[in-house]
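Minutes, project check-in
Item: structure for the 133-residue chain
Input as provided by the requester:
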Amino acid sequence: MDILVDSNVILDIVTEDHIWYGWSSSKLSEFSSNCRFFINPLIYSEVSISFERIEELDEVISGTFFLREHIPWEAAFLAGKCFLKYRKRGGARRSPLPDFFIGAHASVRNMTLLTRDTGRYGEYFPKLKIISP
């Protein structure tokens, strides 16, 4: 199984979040023997805020543990359509677009999404397989 790992899961581990560290690390451990973990440039960018240098980030988000994949064009199209639906339903303009790219990426590539933020993913990507608390 291929799993796209949301930034919140990685940040839980990197920051040793006192609430979510245990859940996030146990899920990565649970699936590490029979799954491949992926990130995309948006996830990379969101995780980067916890680091001063790119070398430090690259050490933590190793290419051997987290495979890097670009967002497919089809996913970018789907993300835009889902974001438009969200906006038409009165959704805030703040910054949910990255979540739509992440959800669309996992959907188009038929990946499972490992996240603890299921709200928009479940609503706008109903066929998306999600691992969450």
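Outcome recorded: The chain has one domain: 2-131.
No further action items on this chain.
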